């Protein structure tokens, strides 16, 4: 089972709930690719010596890697961090995440500024393009362990919306014109 994505409802209810529209309006992998979001399914049990992961890292130039466990018992300032991750923001670099255990959601904006929720579980590797507005949250299991990958040195800076003046945002929007 790969990632699943759908358009979100506008309910203010707990961010960790699925927030599917009624009826559900699914989003395909092709639709995500048009927004610059790419996905691989890997065997997370092998992540330490997975040749497939090595190949992706080499091809994409992901030289830096670390692992974060997002759970009340392992992450200092857990509630604050979750709130921060859920603020709508963009980065000047691609965001690359590989779920090694547990589950999580990435929410991204489509061309019409509607929220799409991407449900990720163990083995899902996703790349979000620099300049896309997005946010992150756990689901109701309240646990995920993820590998964070970067090209070169990690840059943790998030720019909360509005951040439309950045060249990378303009470049991202221009890239959507072609699709």
Structure notes:
The chain has 179 residues and is an alpha+beta fold. It has one domain (35-177): Jelly Rolls (Sandwich). 20% of the residues lie in helices and 34% in strands. The chain has four helices and eleven strands; from the N terminus they run ββαβαβαβββββββα. The chain has helices spanning 29-34, 51-60, 78-85, 167-177; strands at 4-7, 26-27, 38-41, 64-70, 89-90, 95-109, 115-121, 124-128, 134-138, 144-150, 159-160. The strands form two sheets. Strands 1, 2, 3, 4, 6, 7, 8, 9 and 10 form a nine-stranded antiparallel sheet that branches. The protein has a two-stranded antiparallel sheet with strand order 5-11. The radius of gyration is 16 Å and the shape is globular.
Concise synopsis of the structure shown:
By secondary structure, this protein is of the alpha+beta class. It contains 4 helices and 11 strands; from the N terminus they run E-E-H-E-H-E-H-E-E-E-E-E-E-E-H.
Uncertain parts = none
Number of strands: 11
Domains (count): 1
Distance between the termini: 27 Å
CATH class bucket: Mainly Beta
Number of helices: 4
Note the beta-strand portion.
25-35%
H and E order: EEHEHEHEEEEEEEH
Q: Report the CATH topology name.
A: Jelly Rolls
CATH architecture: Sandwich
Keywords: Amino-acid biosynthesis, Cell membrane, Cytoplasm, Dioxygenase, Iron, Membrane, Metal-binding, Methionine biosynthesis, Nickel, Nucleus, Oxidoreductase
Binding site for Fe(2+): 89, 91, 95, 134
Family: Belongs to the acireductone dioxygenase (ARD) family.
Catalytic activity: 1,2-dihydroxy-5-(methylsulfanyl)pent-1-en-3-one + O2 = 3-(methylsulfanyl)propanoate + CO + formate + 2 H(+); 1,2-dihydroxy-5-(methylsulfanyl)pent-1-en-3-one + O2 = 4-methylsulfanyl-2-oxobutanoate + formate + 2 H(+)
């Amino acid at each position: 089972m790969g990632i699943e994505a759908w358009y979100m409802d506008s309910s203010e209810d707990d961010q960790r709930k699925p927030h599917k529209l009624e009826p559900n309006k699914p989003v395909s992998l092709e639709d995500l690719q048009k927004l610059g979001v790419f996905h691989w399914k890997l065997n997370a049990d092998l992540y330490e010596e997975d040749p497939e992961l090595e190949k992706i890292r080499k091809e994409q130039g992901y030289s830096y890697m670390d692992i974060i466990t997002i759970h009340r018992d392992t992450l200092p300032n857990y509630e604050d961090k979750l709130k921060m991750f859920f603020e709508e923001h963009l980065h000047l670099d691609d965001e690359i995440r590989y779920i090694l255990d547990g589950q999580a959601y990435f929410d991204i904006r489509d061309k019409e500024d509607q929220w799409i929720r991407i449900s990720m579980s163990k083995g899902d590797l996703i790349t979000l393009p620099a300049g896309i507005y997005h946010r992150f949250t756990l689901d109701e299991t309240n646990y995920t362990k993820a590998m964070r990958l970067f090209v070169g040195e990690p840059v943790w800076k998030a720019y909360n919306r509005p951040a439309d003046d950045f060249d990378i945002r303009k470049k991202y929007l221009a890239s959507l014109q072609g699709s």
